[in-house]
Amino acid sequence: MANLSLCMIVKNEVENLPRCLASVRGLVDEMIVLDTGSTDGTVELARSLGAQVEHFAWCDDFSQARNVALEYVTGDWVLVLDADEVWRSQATVDIRLLIDRPEVLVINLIRQEIGAVQSPYSLVSRLFRRHEGIYFQRPYHAMIDDSVEVLLKTEPNWQILQLETCAIDHYGYTLEAIQSQGKHAKARKMMEGFLAKHPDDPYVCSKLGALYIEMGEIDRGINLLNQGLQAKNIDPNTTYELHYHLAETYQKQQQLQQSFDHYQTAIAQPIFPQLKLGALNNLATLLQDNNQLAEAEVLYKEVLAIDPNLAIAHYNLGILYRSQNNFVGAIEHYEIAIGLTPDNPNLHQNLGVVLMKVGQVPESLEAFGRAIVLHGGSEEGERLRQTLGEMGFAIDPIATDMQ
């Protein structure tokens, strides 16, 4: 039976580390943690949890740190996680079977981005055989893919597999973990340095182009995304991302035909359905906004067939049904969305509107009260309270049962 090693780089991860290491207990045979300068007790905690801790002086290059961590690994296979990631136990049996197959080199894993609204899944190359030809490259978004591509030219008999079961939960998209502008600037600097040496690399064009757009440099981002699409030998996942980012940007700019075309091309890529959810849901919204309701409904249902727990799709479908006066359908999907994301005030507010329309006044007022509390004293919450008061309904959100 093949041995499996966990390999991590960390810095100041006291809060996240116990959850991460607990998730791989019973899966891995050793835990290697490379610390890059923690000051919060991470080193002592990691050792107390059974990890072997080594040290590395940070040099603004994630690939260098990950490669140093690999030097301490002794297992046949390597699982790379970050401290804000958690292994899903349901993937363990499949993995144990696959790593015992002698022809398998890499197993790509589906990761759920907890808290990410639009694109809740990604594909990561984080599980691979320990091999001298496999190592990390790229200072930011470090990955093994480039080295694997080179290795396969001289050792073509290896197999690259993709596990369909979602294997990792990533908590880096929760509100508490959203990147600050300082981190954006650091990421930008590192990726720009890589792009200067590799101007035809479609992956960095996708990541850096999307970052430019997020930072408000729209034209520069669009140009870089289009530059990525001109590269040769783009893999389907990168092709999807380039078209998706362009489609999303054009949608926000109300350039709807261009947005539609890029979403269609993104969806046509031969990748796992989970990875297409962002494009499918956004395209459905685009169609809904342009009164193509039947087509939008079909896409929302396709999204929910892939992931029944995607709250934004339930919310959007509720809005669609409300516009068609299908209040039963709207209530059903609003309530499902609330069950998945109970702290979203807009869900409660929209549910309150529909409940009022069907005459369920007490239930409507309860939903409105919860919305006011969740709005947290904002102008929107105050407007809602005033509107209800003008209708003759006095809401005391303090007394609202939030359980």
How would the blueprint of this fold be written?
Layout lengths: L3 E7 L6 H7 L6 E6 L6 H7 L3 E4 L6 H9 L6 E4 L4 E3 L4 H8 L4 E10 L7 E9 L15 H10 L4 E12 L10 H17 L4 H13 L3 H12 L6 H17 L3 H12 L9 H13 L3 H14 L4 H13 L3 H14 L4 H13 L3 H15 L3 H12 L13
Parallel strand pairs: 1-2, 1-4, 2-3, 6-8
Antiparallel strand pairs: 4-7, 5-8, 6-7
Helix pairs in contact: 6-7, 7-8, 7-9, 8-9, 9-10, 9-11, 10-11, 11-12, 12-13, 13-14, 14-15, 15-16, 16-17
Features:
single chain, Serine Threonine Protein Phosphatase 5, Tetratricopeptide repeat, about 50% helix, about 400 residues, 8 strands, alpha/beta, Spore Coat Polysaccharide Biosynthesis Protein SpsA, Chain A
Helical content band:
40-55%
Query: Strand content of the residues, in percent?
Result: 5-15%
Give the averaged pLDDT, no decimals: 93
* Largest sheet: number of strands, sense, barrel closure: 8 strands, mixed
CATH topology of the domain at 4-176: Spore Coat Polysaccharide Biosynthesis Protein SpsA, Chain A
Using the alpha-carbon principal axes, give the shape.
Answer: globular
In N-to-C order, the SSE pattern is EHEHEHEEHEEHEHHHHHHHHHHHH
What CATH first level of the domain at 4-176 would be assigned?
Alpha Beta
Cα gyration radius (Å): 24 Å
